[in-house]
Amino acid sequence: MKKILVIALLLASSVYCKAQQELAFPFQGGALIMNRFFKDSIAISPEMIAKKASGVAVFKFTADINGNLQKIVIYYADDYVLTMPVIEALKKSTKKWIIPDKEKFHDFIIPFSISYNSPSTNQADVQKAAYEFYKKRKPILANDQIPLNSATLLPTVVVKYDLK
To answer: Which UniProt keywords apply (predicted)?
Structure first.
């Protein structure tokens, strides 16, 4: 009898419990569409291909209530050459961002990982060129901290390109 009473109380109280509200992904169409958009929009420059450039770039940008980008900040990049194609792709993403809770502005942090597909031939030459890029790279570092309490961290966009 006690078991039935406890189960009945648990069921009755569960009616008043609410599940955590799930927020919509802040890019129109979701995470997979966002990844596809950036993979299609990032134009790998001939300079990147020649240098065998690879690395990480982390950006913070602000979007307004209409999804327009207001400002873009580079928080970290392994080299300047990695940033320009990403900035151009971010500019193309205007009107695609969904701002949570009807805020006027919202900050997003998005990391990009850019690398090349390993070729099946001339691997020693490619490794040598990649090492030269690594030795000569000049990382970009932000002096101010990332405001994590008021920014949304997005999943890393992984972009791979073919060496020609």
So the answer is: Signal
| Nearest C-alpha neighbor of 92 from the set 31, 34, 137 | 34
68 residue type, one letter: N
Tens digit of each residue's pLDDT (9 = 90 or more) over 54-84? 999 999 999 999 999 999 999 999 999 999 9
Dig out the tokens for 77 from the structure.
């990049």
State if pTM tops 0.90.
no
Q: How far apart are the first and last CA of the chain?
A: 76
Interacting residues of 148 by C-beta distance below 8 A, sequence separation 6+: 109
Sign of CA dihedral 23, 29, 33, 34: negative
Contact criterion met (CB below 8 Å) for 89 and 42: yes
Q: Determine contact, residues 151/105, Cβ cutoff 8 Å.
A: no
**Quick check: 35 and 103 in contact, CB under 8 A?**
no
Summarize pLDDT for 85-108 with one digit per residue, the tens.
Answer: 999 999 999 999 998 777 899 999
Q: What tokens does 42 get?
A: 């990032």
**Beta-sheet pairing, 69-77 with 140-141:** antiparallel
DSSP 145: P
Per the CB < 8 A criterion, the answer to whether 116 and 163 are in contact is yes
